[in-house]
Amino acid sequence: VPKKENSRLAAPQAGVYYAIVSAHSGKAVTAGVNNRLYMGEATGGENQQWAFVPVGEWYKLVNRFTGDVADVILAGVENGAQLHQWEDLEADNQLWALEPAREGLW
Q1: Can you tell me whether residue 52 is helix, strand or coil?
Q2: What is the pTM of this model?
Q3: Which residues pair with 71 in a beta bridge?
Q4: Cβ of 42: how many Cβ atoms within 10 Å?
Q5: What residues are paired with 69 via a beta bridge?
Q6: 17, 47, 65, 102: which has the fewest Cβ within 10 Å?
Q7: Integer Cα distance of 84 and 53 in angstroms
Q8: Is the CB of residue 88 less than 8 Å from the CB of residue 82?
Q9: Which residues pair with 28 in a beta bridge?
Q10: DSSP 8-class letter at 75
């Protein structure tokens, strides 16, 4: 998400797709076959493009290629819970928050 002039991070815009890229590896969250999500080389493909759809103070992450949302498998709450993409069930395990990580990054 681009940084505003006043050094505050801009909220995601409706109708815009974003890549979710690791600051550590430079790899992007990628939607694969069989509902799989994985970190892959950032290619800019539609399977690496995500819309942040507001739901109250949270966001659904909707993949441009599949139309599915990022989902915590079986609504897991423990460290190491795995993610995949799934149909939108309007469930809490499909809602996400953006938290500032460091200057200019979510």
Answers
A1: strand
A2: 0.87
A3: 84
A4: 17
A5: 62, 86
A6: 102
A7: 17
A8: no
A9: 21, 40
A10: G
